[in-house]
Task: inverse folding
């Protein structure tokens, strides 16, 4: 009987266990059904989109960059196709080991390793980075045969920028370089990220930077179906890239080269402008540099040589070099005197070789130039005449007249990086200096302004714009490099419209008085020797500007001074006089008298 009761109890417990297990299984099944309902009904659309995304990949098609041409169609920047060896760090084996093994297949120099290391620091781990560029066909074949040994390493065909003329016009043309983190952020902030997907290079300087949008083009896309392993199966859809537009600039590259050759090893700048429309014909900054060095990422040795050179070859002296204009400022002082009725052209001023003011003696020509009217004062460059004129006019009147000529202002040129310089005024000094005793303008500070010294500091671009304005009778044009853009697809060349010139309202008779004096400079003044026998008429003004201040009783002697303390040599001119087609401003640093060098 006891055994029967035990069997019944065991059976009852077994039924309870089976029931409990069945209940657990049933609940689990309900959970699975609920999950399936949630995934297939509630999240159907979302998961379907993710699944579609997982089996399709959107691949950007980087557009070909537009060409840069000079005004006559000479190619200044172009592209060529070459193979690169690239590593994706996140997919590669240990990097150092991979690179060491690669060096046994293709030639890898120390500069390649250093450049790759620098790119690795600037980029994300999943980006493809070049370890070698411009592989030969033999190297491509050699790597292709052993590619299975190198996961995350591949050969890519890429377009490379090339500057066929090397250093010529480099500051104006500029260069491209790999996009850095700051530029990535700027692109994202400008909502242009989609158009730069897949793009690794961007304009960094000059025309390449300033006209980046036109040159870059529009990125295309390919939508690819991929396998579970990520391998492309077939193309689903595509939108071709639109190549960048070719940009024609106003530079005459033959003129540019001629000027750069004339400079030789000297430092300085020259800007040449067409007075009829503001087109920049030459934009020279010496010394120059080779923009090809930057295309693939400049190596440490070349960067150090350029960046630490005492000659500062990377400085665009035409746009960013600030200099006192010296005597090239005098014609504009004379025009101001006429326009503001401060002096008549026939007024005689005695030049004894000095000018006394406020207990201080300001030097002029040794022995003096005697009695001078305005014409002879410009022709023979009398300091005394213009010292006294500056005092009569006052600093603020000078400032207000010179400002519309763009002295001490940004000219609006279509290149990035232009600096303002300094056109002094009493307000400028109050805002510039912190100490109360330095904020006040002293009358003696006005004297040197008349001969382009003192606080005056301008660029050669500003001086060239002023010279062009004088040449055409008083209409100021905005200087510009862009001349036209060419659609790469249609071949259509479209001129780029420019703002109309601004008439500064000068009286023609006053402009004629100054113009005749400048003609006399090149016929019987400080420019006579250089222009003797020229087959055209010209007008110009030489200038010599102090690089450092000398004591009041110290006589200037270039041979006793270190080279960087010697005077700058300047010249500003236009020609032909009858119908000016070119106006120039040039400075040769620490080269002495303007009539002998500039």
Result:
């Amino acid at each position: 009987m006891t055994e029967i009761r035990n069997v019944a109890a065991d059976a009852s417990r077994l039924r309870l266990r089976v029931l409990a297990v069945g209940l657990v299984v049933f609940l689990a099944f309900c959970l699975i059904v609920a999950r399936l309902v949630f995934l297939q009904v509630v999240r159907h659309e979302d998961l379907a989109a993710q699944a579609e995304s997982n089996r399709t990949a959107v691949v950007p098609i980087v557009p070909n960059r537009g060409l840069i041409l000079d005004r006559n169609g000479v190619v200044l920047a172009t592209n060529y196709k070459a193979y690169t060896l690239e590593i994706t760090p996140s997919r590669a084996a240990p990097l150092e080991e991979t690179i060491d093994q690669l060096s046994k297949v293709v030639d890898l120099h120390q500069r390649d390793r250093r450049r790759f290391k620098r790119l690795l620091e600037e980029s994300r781990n999943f980006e493809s980075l070049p370890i070698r560029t411009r592989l030969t066909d033999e190297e491509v074949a050699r790597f292709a045969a052993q590619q299975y040994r190198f996961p995350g390493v591949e050969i890519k065909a890429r377009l490379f920028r090339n500057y066929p003329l090397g250093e010529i016009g480099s500051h104006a043309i500029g260069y491209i370089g790999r996009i850095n983190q700051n530029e990535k952020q700027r692109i994202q902030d400008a909502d242009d990220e989609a158009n730069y997907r897949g793009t690794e290079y961007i304009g960094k300087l000059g025309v390449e930077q300033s006209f980046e949008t036109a040159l870059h083009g529009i990125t295309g896309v390919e939508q690819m179906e991929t396998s579970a392993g990520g391998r492309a199966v077939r193309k689903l859809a595509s939108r071709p890239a639109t190549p960048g537009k070719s940009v024609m600039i106003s530079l005459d590259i033959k003129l540019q080269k001629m000027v750069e050759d004339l400079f030789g090893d000297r430092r300085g700048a020259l800007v040449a402008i067409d007075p009829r429309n503001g087109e920049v014909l030459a934009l020279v900054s010496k010394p120059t540099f080779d923009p090809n060095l930057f295309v693939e990422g400049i190596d440490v040795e070349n960067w150090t040589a350029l960046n630490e050179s005492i000659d500062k070859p990377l400085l665009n002296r035409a746009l960013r070099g600030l200099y006192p204009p010296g005597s090239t400022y005098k014609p504009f002082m004379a025009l101001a005197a006429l326009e503001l009725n401060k002096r008549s052209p026939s007024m005689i001023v005695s030049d004894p070789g000095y000018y006394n003011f406020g207990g201080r003696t300001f030097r002029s020509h040794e022995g003096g130039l005697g009695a001078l009217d305005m014409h002879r004062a410009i022709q023979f460059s009398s300091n005394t005449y213009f010292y006294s004129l500056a005092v009569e006019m006052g600093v603020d009147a000078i400032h207000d007249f010179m400002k519309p000529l763009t002295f001490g202002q940004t000219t609006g040129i279509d290149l990035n990086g232009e600096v303002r310089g300094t056109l002094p005024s009493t307000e400028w000094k109050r805002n510039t200096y912190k100490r109360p005793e330095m904020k006040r303008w002293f009358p003696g500070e006005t004297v040197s302004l008349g001969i382009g010294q003192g606080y005056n500091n301008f660029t050669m671009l500003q001086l060239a714009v002023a010279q062009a304005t004088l040449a055409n009778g008083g209409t100021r044009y905005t200087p510009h490099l862009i001349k036209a853009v060419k659609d790469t697809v249609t071949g259509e060349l479209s001129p780029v419209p420019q703002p109309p010139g601004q008439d500064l309202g000068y009286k023609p008779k006053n402009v004629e008085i100054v113009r005749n004096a400048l003609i006399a400079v090149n016929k019987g003044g400080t420019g006579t020797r250089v222009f003797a026998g020229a087959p055209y008429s010209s007008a110009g003004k030489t200038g010599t500007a102090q690089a450092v201040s000398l004591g009041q009783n110290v006589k200037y002697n270039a041979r006793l001074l270190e080279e960087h303390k010697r005077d700058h040599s300047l010249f500003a001119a236009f020609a032909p006089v009858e119908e000016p087609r070119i106006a120039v401003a040039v400075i040769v640093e620490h080269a002495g008298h303007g009539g002998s060098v500039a």
